[in-house]
Amino acid sequence: MPSPTCYLLLNPAASRSHHRPRLPLPAAAPPRRRVHVSCDARRTGGGGGGGGVKREAIPAGTGKAKKQVVFFDAAPPVSQRGGGGGGEGEGEGEGKVARRKKENAALGLVRRLTKRTLSLLSNLPLAISEMFAIAALMALGTVIDQGEAPSYYFEKFPEDNPVFGFITWRWILTPGFDHMFSSPVFLGLLALLAASLMACTYTTQIPIVKVARRWSFMHSAGSIRKQEFAESLPRASIQDLGVILMGYGYEVFTKGPSLYAFKGLAGRFAPIGVHIAMIFIMAGATLSATGSFKGSVDVPQGLNFVIGDVMKPKGVLSFAPDVFNTEVHVNRFYMEYYDSGEVSQFYSDLSLFDLDGKEVMRKTIKVNDPLRYGGVTIYQTDWGFSALQVKKNGEGPFNLAMAPLKLNGDKKLFGTLLPLENSGSSNVKGISMLARDLQSIVLYDQEGKFVGVRRPSSKLPIEIDGNEIVIEDAIGSTGLDLKTDPGIPIVYAGFGALMLTTCISYLSHSQIWALQDGSTVVIGGKTNRAKLEFSEEMNRLLDKVPELISVNEKKIDSKQSAT
Fold it and tell me: According to its UniProt record, where is this protein mainly located (predicted)?
């Protein structure tokens, strides 16, 4: 191969290119001539001259590669774009460099902003503040009645008489606290807390797990003695120590005279699982607040309704499923009573029919025992008095609508009027009937005087103002709440994962290092939890080392005596 000196001597243009700049060249290719040059090869021979250097020319016919040096009368032409000269090419190159610098600067800015944002979001005091703010809003949502009409808040929180001197309806309706758990403030705090959890996982928990999974051997006795627990074991070996550590549930690795062991690595993964579980819970709560339907209806016994007619969307992610076309029929409504006469439980016998009129499900529901079908849950929440069937002088029965009467407290009272013909009076008069439940009816005459009490099931007549009245039946109405909540399975899964990962996080991640230093083993270790238990475990472990050494020595002695 030609030496560098040979190349520069034969190519003056190459030697001058280090001292002056290249000039623009014409577009046409210059003439060239091809010259074959053979350079001497330096060999160290063993012939005459006492091992001197002998230069020989490499013959052209040999099998070795032959180097060619091509001379041009001028430098080869530069590739041109668009007919421009070299100046344009240099300008384009400078433009590319400038653009590349701008791209690098923008990329560096994005990286710095990302790092600063992650550092801010992963701040522990910030995350704690977010959780306290969410807890405060949840508590406020239990104090303020949710989902009421605006007129309710105008009346309860008037501007002329603020609660606590400053809380008016504006403080509730403006930020959306009348529907707290779907308000922008509450959902924004949930999103901020989820971002903090993800940032903490990315910047803190994942690097910790990566470090914990690494097999890190220590090759210095001084480094091992700096651990939380350190001890020296004379007349021991790391092989014997490894056997004992495996008996205590450690994963043991050896490399030459070094040993590394650990256990409880799942405890390092648990905080990541806790964060993911909390994100699932918040995601499910958000989906419940923005993607569910809710409705309520009072249906008299014997009537029916369509599910979609009573359901109202609660958010932008609420999409009506096909099950909303299902028809619900109230077959029967009845109640049970305590011995004191108070209502103890009420029941609704419901049937569900599809679009073809086929019954797809039937169930009797009660309080705390709802009906679930196709993602829709029907709860038994209330009851009412729909109508009273009455016979008058053998005529009828007439269905008299029962109206709820307002009373102080939670007691219910219903009433109706059976009008009597009285052409001589401009005022309508009749027999008044009052009821607190479906089991007894109190009757009053035209003057408002008490006449008697009758049970609908007795069918006993009663004489009032010359009229024979018979109470045939009391028709009740069932109060139902209907709801679809797609976020419930996610919330339940999140809480289940949270309980599991919280328990796993209490597992201690323990690490042990050992080094064989002659006939002595230097051992040290640390743990992230349960410091006292780890120290006691290490002491028990070290107590077994002399026993194992004694057993090994006895085995060696027996083998030697046998030989």
Answer: membrane
